[in-house]
């Protein structure tokens, strides 16, 4: 397999809006990012993924782009971006830009033109359909944000037709069937590569192709979230035949011509579907992240699930594809709250990091994870910002749920859990801003912040750094085969990563209980401790006692 820089990368997602505010307007910005790049270098990160920082009305915090070739003024200018890029490069950090190619903002010039008349040159940049005979929407498809009346179609008076939007009505879907649209997108991707970026994260790349003929969905509505008459039916736009033709076309016109890494947001991608997207000989994209371990709705990763999923995806990697390892991002809950235990916050944060950094694939850290940031619980729906949360709340109100039930749902499922400002120190607003933050700071910031973490002998940040160093020093972490042991254990995860140079053994007690385990003889060779997450001494032995959330990496 041809060696690429990103095979050995440690990635970090920056959600700029919540990272660091340099000018006191309450919104994180590029100069803020620039001032903190040294922190990321010290963390051992060598690749940044920027969630969208393009010009945007911020309906979905930047996933509604109104100009793909401009930086949003709240974040700075192209000059600021270039400074960040050059500084990152000087530190050996590559930069990957989020590309939102499924939809744009309704404020994009293309859409403002498109809606003007049926013969406008930009009409076909978007998806327009006439009403059904009774005047209703072309299909019963619902939008993912449960917004408005719930439909994925919005009527536009000017031309008397509906336009299609899988997400918000303010985020119309682009029409990939139309060649001039494709050419504009390709030009724009080259623009960013010319500027020096190292690759792209592709937002919902499995959804560019829509079901031809727009059939009605026969799916049963979700009694909690679907609005009357409209159903959210992923099959109408996800992995629709023809999607590979689109990706191959992008690859041919852009990715294959340039030095660039691509990682796709694999909505609905299973390990059976993945190879067709990511095997190098397919000529589509380089890597993807799936949702089989981390998703907004899942609240538990059992050792059994972990083993099953990792084995399946290791199989994809054996065929030559690359997988992203992560447990949280800007769309999820905080991983310590969701998959760890806040009562063992530090220990479980480190254990989860140990798992993601030693499983096959490229680890991607989400900002704040490296200091063990936790979920937030806002008292009022007014404090929430995420449009998915607001739509879900509204649907629950209409579907007969109580305010308490809806608020419970929001506090666990809201993407705002991941989006509260970064907690740098214990000063007002966690050192994120001198102004009023755009989203409330998590009230636990005086206890959980970077400054405090670094001052502690139990620093989570330093554990992440040690894991990053391990990737550099131990080829088995990158290329080693994966084998699980004690496969019936309900608490403890045991696996090896073995390549011709070495074998590493990872033992992780993913529970809040003390556990005794008995290892097979075959693992009892050598046993140098490379890294562990507790201060206690523990050596490799047939019978081992593990403390809650204890995780150890041995070299056999
Ligand atoms: C996936 C992004 O990660 C999410 O934040 C966004 O709302 C949707 N795609 C729509 O762009
Ligand atoms: Ca700012």
Structure description:
With 556 residues, the chain is of the alpha/beta class. It is built from 15 helices and 20 strands. It has helices at residues 30-43, 78-90, 109-114, 179-195, 243-253, 274-278, 303-318, 335-339, 345-358, 387-398, 403-413, 416-419, 450-455, 460-473, 475-479, and strands spanning 11-14, 47-50, 54-55, 67-71, 94-99, 128-129, 153-156, 161-164, 199-202, 261-265, 287-289, 322-325, 362-366, 481-485, 492-498, 503-509, 515-518, 528-532, 543-546, 551-555. It has an eight-stranded parallel barrel, surrounded by four helices. A five-stranded antiparallel β-sheet has the order 14-15-16-20-18. α1 (30-43) runs parallel beside α2 (78-90), α9 (345-358) packs parallel to α14 and α10 packs antiparallel against α11. Bound molecules: 1-deoxynojirimycin and calcium ion (CA). Residues 60, 63, 100, 167, 203-204, 265, 330-331 line the site of 1-deoxynojirimycin (NOJ).
């Amino acid at each position: 397999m041809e060696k690429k820089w990103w095979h050995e990368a440690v990635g970090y997602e920056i959600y700029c809006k919540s990272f660091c505010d340099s000018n006191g307007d309450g919104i994180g910005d590029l100069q803020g990012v620039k001032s903190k790049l040294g922190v990321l270098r010290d963390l051992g990160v060598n690749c940044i993924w920027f969630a969208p920082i393009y010009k945007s009305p911020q309906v979905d915090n930047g996933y509604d782009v109104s100009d793909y070739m401009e930086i949003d003024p709240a974040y700075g200018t192209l000059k600021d971006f270039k400074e960040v890029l050059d500084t990152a490069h000087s530190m050996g950090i590559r930069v990957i830009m989020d590309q939102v190619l499924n939809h744009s903002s309704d404020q994009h010039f293309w859409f403002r033109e498109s809606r003007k008349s049926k013969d406008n040159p930009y009409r076909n940049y978007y998806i327009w359909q006439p009403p059904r005979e009774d005047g209703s929407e072309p299909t019963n498809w619902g939008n993912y944000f449960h917004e408005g009346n719930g439909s994925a179609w919005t009527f536009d008076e000017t031309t008397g037709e509906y336009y299609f939007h899988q997400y918000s009505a303010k985020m119309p879907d682009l029409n990939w069937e139309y060649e001039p649209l494709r050419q504009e997108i390709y030009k724009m991707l080259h623009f960013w590569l010319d500027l020096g970026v190292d690759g792209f994260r592709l937002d919902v790349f499995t959804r560019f192709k829509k079901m031809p003929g727009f059939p009605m969905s026969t799916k049963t509505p979700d009694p909690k979230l679907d609005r009357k008459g409209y159903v959210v039916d992923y099959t109408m736009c996800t992995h629709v035949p023809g999607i590979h033709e689109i990706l191959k076309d992008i690859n041919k016109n852009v990715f294959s011509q340039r030095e660039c890494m691509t990682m796709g947001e694999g909505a609905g991608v299973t390990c059976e579907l993945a190879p067709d997207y990511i095997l190098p000989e397919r000529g589509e994209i380089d890597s993807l992240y799936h949702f089989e371990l981390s998703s907004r709705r899942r609240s538990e990763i059992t050792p059994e699930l972990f083993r099953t999923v990792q084995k399946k995806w290791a199989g994809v990697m054996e065929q030559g594809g690359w997988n992203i390892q992560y447990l949280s991002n800007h769309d999820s809950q905080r991983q310590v709250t969701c998959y760890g235990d806040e009562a063992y916050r530090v220990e479980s944060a480190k254990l989860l990091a140990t798992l993601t950094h030693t499983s096959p694939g490229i680890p991607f850290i989400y900002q704040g994870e490296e200091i063990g940031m936790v979920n937030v619980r806002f008292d009022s729906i007014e404090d929430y910002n995420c449009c998915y949360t607001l739509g879900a709340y509204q649907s629950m109100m209409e579907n007969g749920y109580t305010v308490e039930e809806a608020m419970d749902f929001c506090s666990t499922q809201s993407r705002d859990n991941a989006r509260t400002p970064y907690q740098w120190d214990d000063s007002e607003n966690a050192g994120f801003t001198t102004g009023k933050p755009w989203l409330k700071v998590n009230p636990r910031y005086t206890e959980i912040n970077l400054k405090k973490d670094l001052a502690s002998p139990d620093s989570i940040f330093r554990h992440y750094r040690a894991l990053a160093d391990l990737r550099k020093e131990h080829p088995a972490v990158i290329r080693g085969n994966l084998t699980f042991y004690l496969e019936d254990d309900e608490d403890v995860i045991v696996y090896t990563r073995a390549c011709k140079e070495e074998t590493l053994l990872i033992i992780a007690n993913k529970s809040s209980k003390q556990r005794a385990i008995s290892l097979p003889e075959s693992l009892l060779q050598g046993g140098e401790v490379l890294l562990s997450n507790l201060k206690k001494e523990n050596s490799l032995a047939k019978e081992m006692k593990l403390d809650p959330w204890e995780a150890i990496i041995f070299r056999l």
